[in-house]
Amino acid sequence: MAIDRIWSYAPDSGHVEGQDLTGFTVAATDGTIGHVDREADPHGMRHLVVDTGVWVFGRSVLVPAGVVTGIDPQGRRITLACTRGDAKAAPRFQTDSETRDREYLTAVGDYYDRLPPRARTSA
Question: What is the pTM of this model?
Fold first, then answer.
């Protein structure tokens, strides 16, 4: 996946502009990782902040929009092209302000861009 595409939803992802994804369940290729806390687009770097609950000791993870492979609005479910371990190992943020920091977002984009390609699945 090209780094410039990591911050945009793929045309076949099912994303509809203006759709509120808050509360949607987020599933990696090997299981659920949490729920969408919010979606943001600072500096044109669109991403989801996913609340992992107790799975990752109560911390949230940031997932670039380009990692989303499917959005099911009826089932309120989002699927990703990464594993739970991939999401857990992503650069973590300590404060919400980092989710708007270009340097941090670039590190996250680089991390996800380097992951091995995975089969695309629909929601």
Answer: 0.88
Cα distance between residue 26 and residue 104, in whole Å: 22
9 near 15, Cβ under 8 Å? yes
Other beta carbons less than 10 A from residue 118's beta carbon: 15
At 75, list the tokens. Answer: 């089932």
Rounded Cα–Cα distance for residues 102 and 44 (Å): 10
Q: pLDDT tens-digit profile of 16-25?
A: 999 999 999 9
**What is the residue whose two structure tokens read 């109560």?**
58
Residue 48 and residue 34 in contact, taking contact as beta carbons nearer than 8 Å:
no
DSSP 89: H
Give the helix ranges, DSSP H, for 12-101.
Answer: 84-89
